[in-house]
Design brief:
Ubiquitin-like (UB roll); 18% strand; 21 helices; alpha/beta; Nucleotidyltransferase, domain 5; five-stranded mixed sheet; 526 residues
Length: 526
């Protein structure tokens, strides 16, 4: 096959490539130089066959000599989707796992047009999945689909704050049984060629993607504690790898020495870094005692210092990499200023900066009034398995329900939460705790034996949730013995009283009108 020599030859070549799109793993990306050749070509004189187009033409000819073998999927088997995107094209491949090998089922490619070229990298990948689901709808509706990717597509689609076209795509993909898994290794050579052949320019300069790379880099932590006659305060400065600073001040409501304040500042800052999922942390403190005890150079002899040291080491073990260094006070000016302001100028300082107040020492054990335990098997189990591992129930209808409702739940640190648009996240509880919570709200201390609607409202304000809250609360309150004994007794009749009129006049006095009485002798009334 000779190289195209006219505009008509290029158009014919593009038509042939479009017919072979299913068999070509990079049809759209390979045809881009041909499209650029036709751009602006209005007459025969404007036609220019560039070197880039010639190289792309030779690559297509070489690829057509060794086309991959496609296979038909078995009914009910799980199919795998790989996604990739370049600056001007999106491409995907549908794979069937056959033992230790992966066989191609369908290749999908599309050239981005107009505003689609300006989509961020993450939106291009999601758009590739949406386009694949539209084109291969028959496969997506009859087979379980697994999407292997190294990008957090699932996290982006399940965020409650998404809007616009992302929200439309999330709803459109929600009807299919799609599971997102992390891509580790590639088995088939065809898939390796599919992923390697495309350039890695999908992430342009200035584009932002949702990744956890920032959490895996080193963060810097500066802490300081100040103690005086007027009180004690803590200053915390957390610096991200990008240079963003997080300032925090804490007021101690108990007496503490300088060393105890230094430890309190370090413990509070480690808890703060842990709450935002920091993995690698370097702490800078100006206390020689704290730095030397954590590094093993000094020994903690005081009982109070021993407790602080044990608690601090337990928190440092939760990080992937942790290091503590002693610095001069001149390099810790910001944290030192925060600690002094929190300890001395507390009333005025709270008007400008959020200040937390610690009621007791970190080494003191908390007294819990009630413990919420997670049950082994309950209504939360399918949601936890899906959010944690992406595992669906065996029942297809139940699996579809779980997938549709899962975006309204959030799983972290072994606890399932219910999301809300206007309220904080609510902790989900099982059937064993629901009765205790309802009784505590209805019959507990300072309770007023309110109605079931008021009880449910109070339970939500306390931060708990479970399905059928109104029904369970109503069933339990109806059988409350105290409510039945002390409730006001309604003695009014069930129905309104209806007055009954007499059928005959004067009948209630036994009088009947029979007409005028006859007159007797002498015209006397008888």
């Amino acid at each position: 096959m000779q190289s195209p020599r006219s505009k008509k030859d290029v158009q014919s070549l593009n038509g042939k490539l479009a017919a072979l799109t299913r068999f070509l793993s990079r049809a759209a990306d390979s045809a881009l130089p041909f499209f650029h050749t036709l751009k602006g070509c209005l007459s025969k004189k404007d036609f220019i066959w560039t070197d880039e187009a010639e190289r792309a033409f030779q690559d297509v000819k070489a690829f057509l000599k060794e086309l991959p073998a496609l296979t038909a999927p078995i009914p009910g088997e799980t199919l795998t989707v790989y996604l990739t995107a370049s600056s001007e094209a999106i491409i995907s491949v549908l794979i069937s796992d056959r033992g230790k090998t992966q066989m191609s089922v369908y290749f999908v490619s599309k050239v981005l047009q107009d505003g689609e070229v300006n989509y961020p990298a993450m939106e291009k990948l999601i758009y590739a999945l949406v386009h694949t689901a539209r084109l291969l709808r028959q496969y997506f509706q009859t087979h379980p689909i697994q999407v292997f990717t190294d990008q957090p597509i699932k996290h982006v689609l399940t965020r409650p704050e998404i809007s616009g076209r992302m929200a439309k795509w999330a709803i459109e993909l929600g009807e299919h049984g799609i599971t997102f898994l992390l891509r580790h290794s590639v088995k088939g050579q065809v898939i390796a060629d599919f992923l390697v052949e495309l350039p890695s320019d999908m992430i342009k300069q200035g584009e932002t993607t949702v990744t956890r790379r920032g959490m895996d880099e080193f963060w810097k932590l500066y802490t300081d504690g100040a103690s005086s006659e007027e009180g004690a305060g803590l200053g915390i400065l957390l610096v991200s790898p990008n240079g963003e600073e997080i300032t925090y001040a804490i007021r101690l409501k108990f007496a503490a020495s300088n060393n105890e304040a230094e430890y309190e500042a370090l413990i509070s800052s480690l808890s703060l870094a842990k709450s935002i999922d920091v993995r690698q942390l370097t702490a800078y403190v100006d206390s020689q005692l704290v730095a030397s005890q954590l590094n093993g150079n000094f020994e903690a002899r005081d009982t109070s210092m021993q407790k602080y040291l044990e608690l601090t080491k337990a928190l440092t073990n939760t990080f992937t990499t942790f290091e503590v260094k002693q610095i001069h006070r001149n390099r810790n000016k910001k944290a030192d200023a925060l600690s002094k302001l929190a300890s001395l100028l507390y009333d005025h300082f709270t008007k400008k900066v959020m200040v937390e107040v610690l009621e007791r020492k970190s080494t003191e054990e908390d007294t819990l009034m009630a413990t919420i335990t997670t049950e082994e098997e309950c209504w939360m189990t399918p949601f936890i398995k899906y959010l944690a591992d992406g595992t669906f129930p065996e029942d297809k209808l139940q699996a579809h329900r779980i997938q549709m409702r899962a975006p309204m739940y959030y799983f972290k640190n072994g606890i399932l939460y219910r999301k809300s648009f206007t309220e904080p996240y609510l902790r989900c509880v099982g059937p064993a705790q629901t009765k205790e919570i309802i009784r505590g709200m209805h019959e507990g201390a300072c309770s007023t034996h309110s109605g079931y609607r008021m009880i449910v409202s109070r339970i939500k304000r306390m931060g708990y949730f479970w399905p059928h809250m109104y029904r369970d609360t109503y069933d339990l309150i109806v059988n409350c013995e105290a409510c039945q004994i002390h409730a006001p007794v309604n003695r009014s009749p069930r129905r309104n009283m209806i007055p009954i009129h007499a059928a005959w006049s004067f009948c209630k006095w036994g009088i009947d009108i029979i007409g005028p009485f006859p007159r007797g002798v002498g015209n006397v009334n008888s």
